[in-house]
Amino acid sequence: MRMLADADLLALWDRCHGQPPGRRAAALLAAAEPGADPAALPAGLRDTALLRLHARALGGRLEAVASCPACGERLEVALDAAELAAAGGPAPAGELVVRAAGHEVRFRAPTAADLAALPRDGTELLARCVTAGRRLRDGAAVAAGALPEPVRAAVEQAMAAADPAAELELALSCPACGHGWSEALDPAEFVWVAIETRARWLAGEVHALAGAYGWSEAEILAQRPARRRLYLEVLGR
Question: d(Cα 21, Cα 50) in Å, to the nearest integer?
């Protein structure tokens, strides 16, 4: 996974700004691994790759704020992106089978491409991932959208079990009241927030140096960060 130069990061921000979350995540992966096919990655491996991107290109520290659901206390949470990436599980099997409520369903785990398609609900996601469904009593084919609710729930549960890295949960405990709960972690959102924060910082540096010295954006971003900071210190920023 390659490092992102400042110019690359600003260009990436420009491409991703305003995109829906799933498509934005796919674009982030494509920038980090230009020779790979990020759309084909299972969801868990997608998130693991995004965590590696954060660790190498944006710094390894993930910072978040959570509120205790019992007493409202705000907690500051710091995580290590590289450690989270290393904890990711193996890729799920190609095709999986679930038998529930008199039905047999064959399906695959969701990929980054499925998430980029922005399914509106579980039924739409199942329509993309279910390869075959049938009633056991007579063998009649059943489309994903016609599966009974208990069967859909069983398939969704099996999907989550097959790719546990796709649903990262943080175990939290409130220091004020001792209440324990879990919070979902979305690596794609963490990476995007870090990129947007860095892009706005870079835009401020470019604005100040271009106004003071007349340099172009390309000339400014080609300088080493330490040298840019030196000029900014001269300007009193």
Answer: 13
> How far, in Å, CA of 93 to CA of 79, rounded?
29
- To which H or E segment does residue 218 belong? helix 217-222
- Other residues' Cβ atoms within 10 Å of the Cβ of residue 182: 10
The pTM assigned to this predicted structure is 0.71
CA distance 231 to 225: 10
pLDDT in tens, 116-134: 776 555 568 888 899 999 9
The two tokens of residue 195 are 């990129």
Structure tokens at 171: 């175990």
Write down the residue that tokens 């390894």 correspond to.
60
From CA 119, how far away is CA 125, in angstroms rounded? 6
> Shortest CA distance to 7 belongs to which of 232, 209, 235, 198?
198
